[in-house]
Amino acid sequence: MTDSPRSYPRHLDCGGTAVEIAPMTSRDGAALTDLVATLPPHDLLFLRRDLSHPKVIAAWMRALDEGELASLVARADGRMVGCTAIFTDALSWSRHVGELRVLLDPAWRGRGLGRVLMQECFVQALALGLTKLVAQMTTDQRAAIAVFEELGFRAEALLSRHVRDRDGALHDLVLMSHDVGAVAARHELYGLGDALGTPG
After folding, report:
1. Is the pTM of this model over 0.85?
2. Among 22-31, 40-49, 88-97, 127-136, which stretch is predicted with the lowest mean pLDDT?
3. Which one in 49, 88, 199, 200 has a CA-CA gap of 20 to 30 Å to 185?
4. How do residues 40-94 score in pLDDT, each as one tens digit?
5. No. of H helices and E strands in the chain?
6. CA angle (82, 84, 88) in 5-degree steps
7. What is the DSSP secondary structure assignment for residue 6, as one 8-state letter?
8. In sequence order, which residues have a C-beta less than 8 Å from that of residue 45 and are 6 or more positions away?
9. For residues 82 and 104, what is the distance between their CA atoms, to the nearest angstrom?
């Protein structure tokens, strides 16, 4: 993976609590498992694989070791309270596209940490040479959709009855995308690079 222009770890005040943001490593498997345990099952539906299975966590850790993804972790008081991942496929026709995933402890929602993590991902995407980020979620995850829209993502496709939850219910999935280069250039034009997390 290309090195990020950011220097880590980064420290910030989030709702009166100190938070550290740093690259995730394969040593974070147990902490990621603990974070996933805090999430409502419905929150996991936007992921391609069920993170509640240890084999999926192990595959994530292997991908980190093999340099197949860029991933960040947010810690407060030594505990993982959020994380991100940008999955890419260097052998794909869509190697300019990264699939973004953001996980956040429910107790930390509404404090702005999710937005900060997504902004950090924009910087990573540019460093990786990506021009497009995509994210997917079920259509009833309205709060998450609103946050993504505020940061420049737009709905690009709706996949009807695409996800089956653990109870067998089917859900529609929305695919959202973000033109990384165009939005970053626009932010720079208006002098918003630092505020929005793009390198300035």
Report:
1. no
2. 40-49
3. 88
4. 877 776 676 778 889 999 999 998 988 888 899 999 999 999 999 998 888 888 9
5. 6, 8
6. 165
7. S
8. 137, 138, 163, 165, 171, 173
9. 4
* 189 vs 59: CA distance, rounded Å: 40
Q: Is the dihedral of CA 150, 155, 156, 157 positive or negative?
A: positive
Q: List Cβ neighbours of 62 (8 Å cut-off, separation of 6 or more).
A: 26
pLDDT of 174 above 70 = yes
Structural domain boundaries of the chain?
10-192
The structure tokens listed for 164 are 């089956």
Confidence class of residue 187 from pLDDT cuts 50, 70 and 90?
Answer: low
Task: Give the architecture-level CATH label for domain 10-192.
Answer: 3-Layer(aba) Sandwich (3.40)
In DSSP terms, 35 is beta-bridged to none
What dihedral angle (degrees, nearest 10) is formed by the CA atoms of 14, 18, 21, 27? -130
Alpha helix stretches (DSSP H) within the chain: 29-37, 54-65, 113-127, 142-150, 180-189, 193-196
The phi-psi region of residue 77 (left if phi > 0; otherwise alpha if psi is between -120 and 50; otherwise beta) is left
Q: Classify the phi-psi angles of 89: left when phi > 0, otherwise alpha if psi is within -120 to 50, otherwise beta.
A: beta
For 24, 106, 138, the CA distances from 37, given in Å and listed in that order, are: 18, 11, 20
